[in-house]
Backbone:
């Protein structure tokens, strides 16, 4: 998906996320509303389920991070702002970011506050997302 349909989808997603973050829409309703659109972004998804990281990171940790990044975090997934390949859309390229860098961004960048409000991330979630982002860093 590219061009005008993608821009329109991103505008809709941003409005829904804004509505959820200011209390006009519950995170569950926002997720339900965007669920079909998430599928569009994930059609060409290359999963990390069968990949074992060269640094000993388990495939299951990478797969858990992939699910959080693509679908779950913030009730819609990080990919809505950072792109399904984490190279950046509205938000910056986050490939290879460490758990410490993720925590710092979540705690200091105001626009990211909806993530911790909608679906608070555990330490394990942050570790999994970082493992997935490290995996993506090795991809084209």
Residues:
């Amino acid at each position: 998906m590219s061009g005008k349909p993608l821009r329109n989808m991103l505008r809709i997603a941003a409005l829904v996320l804004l509505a959820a973050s200011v209390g006009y829409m519950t995170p569950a309703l926002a997720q339900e509303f965007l669920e079909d659109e998430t599928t569009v972004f994930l059609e060409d998804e290359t999963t990390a389920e069968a990949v074992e990281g060269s640094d000993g990171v388990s495939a299951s940790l990478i797969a858990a991070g992939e699910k959080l990044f693509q679908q779950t975090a913030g009730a819609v997934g990080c990919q809505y702002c950072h792109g399904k390949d984490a190279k950046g859309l509205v938000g910056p390229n986050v490939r290879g970011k460490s758990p410490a860098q993720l925590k710092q961004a979540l705690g200091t960048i105001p626009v990211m506050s909806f993530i911790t409000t909608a679906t608070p991330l555990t330490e394990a979630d942050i570790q999994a997302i970082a493992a997935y982002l490290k995996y993506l860093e090795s991809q084209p």
